[in-house]
Amino acid sequence: MSLFGTTSGFGTSGTSMFGSTTTDNHNPMKDIEVTSSPDDSIGCLSFSPPTLPGNFLIAGSWANDVRCWEVQDSGQTIPKAQQMHTGPVLDVCWSDDGSKVFTASCDKTAKMWDLSSNQAIQIAQHDAPVKTIHWIKAPNYSCVMTGSWDKTLKFWDTRSSNPMMVLQLPERCYCADVIYPMAVVATAERGLIVYQLENQPSEFRRIESPLKHQHRCVAIFKDKQNKPTGFALGSIEGRVAIHYINPPNPAKDNFTFKCHRSNGTNTSAPQDIYAVNGIAFHPVHGTLATVGSDGRFSFWDKDARTKLKTSEQLDQPISACCFNHNGNIFAYASSYDWSKVRTPGPALYDPRRQSRALGSEGLGLSCDSSQGAQVSLGRSPSPACNRKLQGFLQWFWGFSTAFGQNPEHRKHSASGHYGLLCCWVKKHRQAGGCTL
Amino acid sequence: MAICQFFLQGRCRFGDRCWNEHPGARGAGGGRQQPQQQLSGNNRRGWNTTSQRYSNVIQPSSFSKSTPWGGSRDQEKPSFGSFNSGASTNRNKGFGLSENRFASLSPEEQKDEKKLLEGIVKDMEVWESSGQWIFSVYSPVKKKPNISGFIDISPEELKLEYHNFLTSNNLQSYLNSVQCLINQWRNRVNELKSLNISTKVALCIEKVLEHYSSSTLLFAHFFFFQFSDVKNGVNQAAPAFGFGSSQAATFVSPGFPVKNSSSDNAQNFSFKINSGFATASSGSPAVLGSSPAFGAAASASSAISTSAPAFGFGKPEITSAASFSFKSPADSSFGSPGFSGLPTSLATGPVSTPVAPAFGGGDSVAGFGSPGSHSHTAFSKPSNDTFGNSSIPTSFSAPSSIIAPDNVLFTPRDKLTVQELEQFQSKKFTLGK
Questions:
Q1: Which pLDDT tens digit goes with each residue over A353-405?
Q2: Does A238 touch chain B (CB under 8 A)?
Q3: Which of B66, B75, B156 to mutate to test the interface with A (most CBs of A within 10 A)?
């Protein structure tokens, strides 16, 4: 009955499932791991649109590459192609016909990747890393919208090197989402702007942020008539706000909920609060999924205002998530998202700690003998990458010595997997008992 | 009519029926006389009580008691807490005190403010203990501006910085700068947790706290009188503040809204820190005026004049500091590269001193040493630790208006009438008594 993976339903403990000496929690949900995962953190995921037969998954990583897999109905993932940027890739998106992939990178450019010819050309230029990229298909125009840390939102016709339009943002663009005719951009300093895209993109409204802290991710949802009607906004403070654009009763309809916190109900004891790294809405059911730095993903029903399910805790934060076009597949990326930056310092270069941290998990990156048979890690970094990876892991250990409050933090940060996992979702059920 | 003492304490049981005057509850039309009477009344009380907790009596107030973030009843399974969209915070405006910020707060507003401050303290505690991301702006309630002193850095930006430093093999400086940012954040959080009067004044100025409650008002007065010995035009601020001119409420004008919006157009990390830090040390422009105390050569007027352009953009005071650090020639590594496009016209040296505490003097990389580590002798201010941050702005937003050719806000000292001067220098206001 469990739809996540082959053996256990959720709720069974995720520790020591492999029976090895180290408790490896990198895949507690027993979901399918994608082969040939990138070597560094994954920043973004995107599934192909319905116009393309089959399911193709694109992931952009901090190793400057964008990879494409075909995900088959059996669950098997086949790496298809890869493109490189000169900087980490922050966002990816598909064109509406599924023939092109747009990638936005820290090298201040955005590229259009033609999958059939496997060529990528640059289509956009900013003055700072490009954080978001979306394809807009309007009846009278189509363009690519890029949001960048240079506080501008630019719209590009892919054939021209000059933007069709440039809109100023109050601050650096942190996240955006587009469902025609609505676009939402969340910026630094708690800025929030809604755009309407008919005829040409224009600012529709600036909204007071419903959240107290930094905005992290945003996703638009649709109403029963399939029109975009509001958005969900996640912050670093383990909270998501649901906001309708024109609600009949704003005080009642808009709300926030807490998520991705340890001891969620018990608010008196100090709890750990994690950032919400990604929000995705199920295309059919309208339920939403959130992934957080605590290494869990959760499904929620915003209309019934209930939580449907929370996954087991992975050993690394989950940095990105995505549904496929019909909602049958939910992909999430497990990789370090830089959330544990409390006390960098002398612990960094302590060799004894380093060896303990790397241990078998570190080696597990290149040799999968310690892992169970169900999963194939398939990661074999080239020597150069491996060195860099080792370096990163050393640094990582230093950073991960947490503030001292919670030893759980240390435990979870010990390993350095950059895994990409897929899981199958047959259906989301609403109201209470989950059969997920 | 006599002023009702019980109302001032927040516990008049007659309410509207009371035969005595309830100042402030009847609206702002009370005029100039009101605030000063209030002040005198509050003076008496304020000096005795150290805290702002006026009463424990629950006035029958009509506003909803829900805390602004009503979601605290969140439970895992059944439901989310419903979000109360800040209806309670709008009460402050509806009390007829809209123009006169100096009037005493009615009890409901005091409670609102108290709640707000308690909320801030609680949020700070949670922030510290919960391990959440620290490089984030913060605002206590929806619709309020962000509290200064916090910079927004997304994890991706930080990670990108790491990558850049990695390629240049300069990991240590990255670590140092992150450590400095963390320290800066921690200081600010502690400041907000302790919530002494100076931070409250600063919050008032930022329009986080809606009205100047009497205790913050008191402090500001106290503060200004301290400055009466300072040589330059600094103390000009006091008349602007104290004499309740209709513009006085707006005297805290230009600097701080700019500060909040003076976001960094950072191309690189280093610049970002600095500009973020500019917001943190928002008090630092104020210190510009004090530079004569440090024996800088520039005359008072020039010191102030340099502060004005600095005031207009939240960043340049850092620019100048970085360019010429008063204490140490060696600049922090964040010095030059990031400041492209900033006006470098701030020529004089004294400008740098305010940030000297911020840049920690001689240590080049760890530029953000703990504020307040240097002695600032000219300022006999009550709280040392908030020096670098927020306490000074009150007095120094006025200097920027000195530059304005037609300054309605204040009059230079020599132009004050004898009576005004006397008021200004005395301990208690007697005008209108």
A1: 222 222 212 111 111 222 222 222 222 333 344 444 444 444 444 443 333 33
A2: yes
A3: B156
Span A89-112, mean pLDDT?
A: 93
Residue of B83, B183, B271 to mutate for A, most A C-beta atoms under 10 A: B83
Q: Which has the closest alpha carbon to A61: A77, A83, A78? A: A83
Judge if A147 and A264 occupy the same domain: no
Interface TM-score (ipTM) > 0.85: no
Asked if A93 and A217 sit in the same domain, the reply is no
- In sequence order, the β-bridge partners of residue A45 are A59
Same domain, A47 and A168: yes
Are A53 and A135 in the same domain? yes
Do A127 and B160 make contact, defined as CB atoms within 8 angstroms?
no
Residue A243 shares a structural domain with residue A139: no
Domain C-terminal end among A173, A195, A222 = A173
Distance, in Å, from the CA atom of A387 to the CA atom of A390, rounded to the nearest integer, reads 5
Q: Higher confidence at residue B241 or residue A27?
A: A27
If you average pLDDT over every residue of chain A, what do you get? 74
- Asked whether the beta carbons of A431 and A304 are under 8 A apart, the reply is yes
Q: Quickly count: other Cβ atoms within 10 Å of residue B412's Cβ.
A: 11
Strands ordered across the beta sheet of A191-196: A173-179, A182-187, A191-196, A202-206
Question: Per the domain annotation, does A94 fall within a domain?
Answer: yes
Identify which of A41, A250, A338 has the shortest CB distance to residue B85.
A250
Q: Is the pLDDT of residue A106 over 60?
A: yes
Is there a single domain that holds both residue A37 and residue A165?
yes
- Residue A390 resides in a domain: no
DSSP state of A273: B
Q: How far is the alpha carbon of A273 from chain B, nearest alpha carbon, in Å?
A: 5
Look over chain B and give the mean of its residue pLDDT values, rounded to a whole number. 54
Q: Is residue A145 part of a domain?
A: yes
Identify whether A418 is part of a domain.
no
The residue with greater pLDDT, B81 or B143, is B143
* Separation in Å, CA B186 to CA A236, A237, B161: 17, 17, 21
The nearest CA of chain A is from the CA of B423 a distance in Å of 42
Q: Is there a single domain that holds both residue A158 and residue A217?
A: no
Count up the domains in chain A and report the number: 2
Instruction: Give A309's contacts (C-beta < 8 A, 6+ positions apart).
Output: A10, A298, A299, A434, A436
3-state secondary structure of A109: strand
Q: Does residue A198 sit at the B interface (CB-CB below 8 Å)?
A: no
CATH at residue A103: 2.130.10.10
Between the ranges A9-13, A283-287, B214-218, where is the mean pLDDT highest? A283-287
Cα A236 from chain centroid (whole Å): 14
Q: How many beta-carbon pairs under 8 angstroms link A with B?
A: 178
Interface contact flag, A151 B80, Cβ < 8 Å: no
B 157-186 → A contacts, CB under 8 A: 157-160, 162-163, 166, 171, 175, 178-179, 182
Full domain range(s) for residue A288: 209-319+331-336
Q: What is the pLDDT of residues A13-29, one digit of tens each?
A: 333 333 334 556 677 77
Last residue of a domain, one of A126, A152, A173: A173
Minimal CA separation from A134 to chain B, in Å: 19
**How many angstroms away from the CA of A72 is the closest CA of chain B?**
32
pLDDT beyond 70 at A135: yes
More confident residue, A237 or A416: A237
A221 and A118 co-located in one domain: no
